[in-house]
Protein 1
Amino acid sequence: MSVPSPLLAEARDAATKKNFEAAEAKYRQIILSENSTEEQSVTKKLQEQESAIVELGKIFEDNHEAAKLNSLISESRAILGNFAKSKTAKIVKTLIEDFDTIPDSLDLQIQATRESIDWAVESKLSFLRQSLQLKLADLLYKKTSFQEAIRIITDLLREYKKLDDKSSLVEVQLLESKIYHSLRNIPKSRAALTSARTSANSIYCPTLLQAELDCQSGILNAEDKDYKTAFSYFYESFEGFNSQDDEKAIVVLKYMLLTKIMLNLIDDVNNILNHKNVLKYKSKDIDAMKSISTAYSNRSLKEFESSLLTYSTELKSDPIIKNHFNALYDNLLEQNLLKIIESYSCVELSHISKTIGLNLQQVEGKLSQMILDKVFYGVLDQGNGWLIIYDEPRRDAAYDASLDLVKNLSSVVELLYEKASSLN
């Protein structure tokens, strides 16, 4: 390992002592310095410039300075042409990914990625351009600009299929599945995931990418309400993320708990939370899931609503958990309403509202939906503020038999008419 120049050593020392202004000045001095004419010195100078760019980017990332990071990406292009293509791609991708941990920097990251794509096209760096387009599609997915992301992915799929680049195909097809799922186009999402798994089977699939595939499989199975299969996929995904100490492990752990709650297996929730691999993930996110499981186990709408209020950020920030908990809340509300009205043939809506602890408008809306869905038979008398409940109507067997008789007679008459026509 080569010894760093005094200037690079000073820059690193300043960064270690959190004297970031001095560190930035020294790193910029290294980046902007001209290369030597001697071959060995040129190689060393390029190595130092690479280190300076990456380390300065890391400082901006740690200090959440998105604007400075964006400027660094623009400024560094002046010297990136001196590096090998693979090294250039690595530096640019590293700088773009530095935005990932900076809060509220998504728009600036998208702008920097677009500019880097244009530069890669001008510089004829096809591999870098493709990698950045995949990153841009992922960023647009996070920004919910799904249609533009799909257009980019369609072009990338065509290119990667021509190149027969299976490893890149897996990533693109997985992202395609996620986007279509967000668009609620489940058949296309499932088809894209199947293609991604087929491509992954023919190559070595990295642990984290396999964990992503398993997670997406679990999400799609949960959409079909096949929570047992979904749990098995989430478990495999959690094992993959956990083995790599990836931050997504806690998200998948929440999905595992979600499937058990949806199956009303509250004991399993407690068993999972007491597992040695899970203990280190104890946090407010996990407390939120535990609170919901307790409320659902107690069939308490009040506890459920209280949990949603207390852990609003943890439970509503993830659209997948939010969607399933909306269904869970509806199911719990139906059960509570049916329990209240089961002993009545006519009951005041105000009494139902008071008993269940919801306002009159919410109660009316849900009861009308239940009547339309034939959960029970009844009618809302809004003039008097009553709910009138009917017994479930019995289907008259004689009526069905009469319909069959008329249908058969009709067939006989048609056959006789055909015979008569042929005789004439």
Protein 2
Amino acid sequence: MSFTVRAITLDLDDTLWPFAPIGARVDQVMHDWLLQHSPATAAMYPVALMREVRDRVFGDNPQLRHDMSALRRLILREVLERSGASLDLLEPAFDVFHAARNQVDLYPDSLDALARIAAQIPLAAITNGNADLQRIGLMQHFVFQLGAHEHGAAKPEPGIFHAACARLGCGHGEVLHVGDHEEMDVAGAARAGLRSCWINRTGARWERQDVHPDLEFDTLAALADWLDAHLAPDAAGPAHPHRSERPHA
């Protein structure tokens, strides 16, 4: 092993679970809820049009890209106002969204791999999204969850990686960041001085020339296997920090 790994930071969406089925389910759950509670809104904004509103609101508010919940509330506010519905429905609608968003179907290898990795080395989550590990039922594997909303900036900006390293009590080069996204995870971690591991579940070809992942695997289980083989008994980081009971979504 050519570098020391004392802790791991882990992306969530499309690393532990596929996000596309979640997005599709959220769209349908929200539409069904609006049909019941605000039929005029549902009629004015069928699923396809609601997706257009979402894309536009995301594009029009780059200053909020670190706060997906705030963006979702902007979407709900717009469609409720324009359809003449009461804004008293905004928070109940958001609660429905958040519940559906946190119904995840893990990749088949994820749960066992998480347990194996967390048993060896401190493991923290870094996410730009609003997944809630406590609600999902996975928080026991992590020392903490750091969300872009809590930090105030999103990956690939280096600050969120550095904040995670500080909380782990490790130098930047001693932390391995693991994720699926070439820019947000691999390039972002590399520019922040962390080691990087690309979880490439789709068999994509790495095209970038400016940066390359230190490790590449097609499953999280393969990373757990690699750690079994390469992590020396004394290579893990400091004793696990206090495990946070409060998720940051």
